[in-house]
Design a protein that fits this description.
The complex is a heterodimer of chains A (208) and B (379). Chain A is built from 10 helices and 5 strands. Chain A is of the alpha/beta class. Chain B has one domain: TIM Barrel (Alpha-Beta Barrel). Chain B is built from 16 helices and 8 strands. Chain B starts with a helix and ends with a helix. The chains are: A alpha/beta (208), B alpha/beta (379). Chains A and B meet through helix 4 and helix 9 of A and helix 10 and helix 14 of B.
Chain lengths: 208, 379
């Protein structure tokens, strides 16, 4: 573990993070070890967010820095499988193109040791079905910033049921207008208020 | 009673609320742009752009439905080409608009597609040459050309205004139309949010220097606009500065100074400041106590605790809100009624306007909207 990289990541010192990743790579430190340091730093970012030392602006920034640093290592995939806890599939439901919340959640999940499959925005039901069949996640996340897309989430979850995919997975939903009533309406399992809650719920469900 | 007399009563009601006086009853501003669907449920959001005259017609009909006719605000039938209006709205963030029936599904809601055309070097252009110089350049970079957009048919607009006036609704005027956003918002749109947050951390002094230039120019633009289009209040939107988004330190240094400049400038021109702020703002509410009593209006969406706003700002400004969009779309009439009753009891009777928490959504149910209105008029 590189203390310097962990601290730079936790302090959101972008230049120092990138310089240290390059330096460690040049020293032939395995990509997985470098990723582990970045993840450790992201863990501290998450803790600071919980303690209200950091805010969403810092989480957004940490996601950007983490992704940029990961790219130097060929992306999370290129670093080999850094996943400790299994796969998490996530996207923003179709007819909704908002991406900030989804990006925060996918990065925080990734930095917490989940193998994340990010389906992007405006994701049709068929793409969720395909991803679930291919990656066999235990938990999926559906992001939604528009009340007009509630019926789309509902349709998506109903399709998962029809396809026989629903019983083995937990469906988490999140986004500005989403609340408990929405959760009940669309047939999801849980509403996550923030990225950290997604991590905690998923870890608990996966028995971590 | 004539429509003019009805308008007088409704205006008096609205002005009493805005001035923190006791109205005859709590005013209701619960108008929805999509109420045309209440008249013809087969219509979709894309019709808002494709069949604007039919939409206007149905909006006027919806405003006369039983119960909905108790609403004080006028229906959203403006006669203005909405695709032009929304393209202009998106351009305030240097973004493009995605429309239903064009880039999105027929019944989807229009959405802002951020472009982030501003570079790091552009901060120097703002500081050295002025914001207006860069602003024009940025609009060019995203291909925004207002001249190429559809223009309103002024004869039709005048006819429509006459028909809306015959409904006897309140016409307390909004000054200046669409006023500039706080400069923090504008700059974050120009850079795109993630990049802007990195700028705040990497080069805070340069960002502040650019904001100083922008603050001055945008306050001048606001004054010019409200002088050209006078009214009782000017509407300033905020969407990306809630207390879960940024720290108090960042809010104090980069966001709030704009309000400290624009509110007095509006007050000098006898225009109140209507803060429409999306997101959770609880921790920032105490900052707003510095503004004079009766000068401002606080209009949250459902994410800020409205009862906290009452506790901190209730003595100083009118509050509007905040029936959650999710409640009117997936809630029951009973839930909507109870929520609205609680608002009336705890927020009213003075200095409160019944409103939605941001817009009433296109999939709101008529029975739910009626429930909110009935709760407010005490039936």
């Amino acid at each position: 573990m590189s203390k310097k990289l962990v601290e730079a990541m936790a302090d959101l010192d972008e230049d120092a993070v990138l310089a240290e990743v390059k330096s460690l790579k040049a020293q032939n430190v395995p990509a997985l070890d470098i990723i582990a340091s970045l993840q450790e730093g992201m863990g501290i970012v998450g803790k600071r967010f919980e303690e209200k030392e950091y805010f969403l602006s810092e989480l957004i920034m940490s996601a950007e820095i983490f992704n940029e640093a990961s790219q130097l290592l060929g992306g999370m995939g290129g670093a080999g499988t850094a996943s400790k806890y299994g796969t998490f599939v996530m996207g923003t439901i179709y007819d909704d193109i908002h991406d900030i919340g989804k990006n925060i959640v996918t990065t925080v999940m990734s930095s917490n040791g989940f193998n994340v499959v990010d389906l992007g925005v405006d994701v049709p039901t068929a793409k969720y079905v395909e991803a679930i069949k291919q990656y066999k996640p235990k938990v999926i996340g559906i992001s939604c910033l528009l009340t007009t897309a509630f019926d789309n989430i509902k349709e998506c979850i109903q399709t998962l049921e029809k396809e026989g995919l629903r019983k083995d997975i937990k469906v988490l939903i999140g986004g500005g207008p989403v609340d408990e009533a929405t959760c009940k309406y669309v047939g999801a399992d849980h509403v996550c208020k923030n990225a950290q809650e997604t991590v905690e719920y998923s870890k608990k469900y996966m028995g971590v | 009673m004539t429509p003019q007399e009805m308008t007088e009563i409704r205006n008096k009601r609205m002005l009493a609320a805005l001035n923190l006086e006791k109205p005859d009853r709590i005013p209701i501003m619960f108008s929805g742009q999509m109420y045309f669907k209440f008249i013809d449920p087969t219509m979709v959001v894309a019709d808002y752009f494709r069949r604007p005259k039919l939409v206007d017609e149905n909006l006027i009909k919806a405003a006369q439905l039983p119960v909905l006719d108790e609403m004080d605000s006028a229906p959203s039938a403006t006669g203005m080409p909405q695709d032009s209006y929304l393209a202009g709205f998106a351009a305030m963030w240097f973004a493009k608009i995605k429309l239903p029936g064009r880039e999105l599904a027929e019944d989807a809601l229009w959405q802002i597609d951020e472009q982030g055309p501003m570079t790091e070097e552009d901060y120097d252009t703002i500081i050295n040459k002025g914001w207006s110089v860069l602003k024009q350049e940025l609009l060019g970079r995203i291909g925004y050309d207002p001249e190429s957009l559809p223009k309103p048919d002024m004869e039709y607009v005048a006819q429509l205004q006459k028909r809306v006036a015959e409904l006897g609704k309140a016409n307390v005027a909004r000054a200046g139309g669409l006023l500039p956003f706080p400069t923090f918002e504008t700059l974050s749109g120009a850079r795109k949010l993630p990049q802007f947050f990195r700028d705040l951390r990497r080069m805070p002094d340069k960002v502040r220097a650019a904001l100083d230039v922008m603050d001055q120019e945008e306050v001048e633009a606001t004054v010019k606009t409200i002088k050209a289009v006078p009214g009782v209040y000017g509407f300033i939107g905020g969407t990306r500065a809630g207390c879960d988004f940024i720290s108090a330190k960042v809010f104090e240094k980069f966001y709030f100074p704009y309000y400290q400049k624009v509110v007095p400038a509006m007050q000098e021109n006898n225009v109140k400041t209507w803060f429409h702020n999306d997101g959770a703002w609880e921790a920032f509410l105490p900052y707003f106590t510095e503004f004079p009593k009766g000068q401002c209006i606080w209009d949250p969406d459902h994410l800020t605790d409205i009862f906290k706003i009452k506790e901190i700002l209730g003595e100083k400004m009118c509050i509007t809100g905040n029936v959650p969009p999710a409640l009117t779309s997936v809630g029951t009439p009973e839930e909507c009624y109870n929520y609205a009753r609680k608002l009336c009891e705890e927020m009213g009777p003075t200095g409160f306007i019944m409103n939605s928490g941001c817009s009433v959504p296109p999939n709101a149910k008529l029975k739910n909207v009626e429930a909110v209105i009935l709760a407010t008029i005490g039936k």
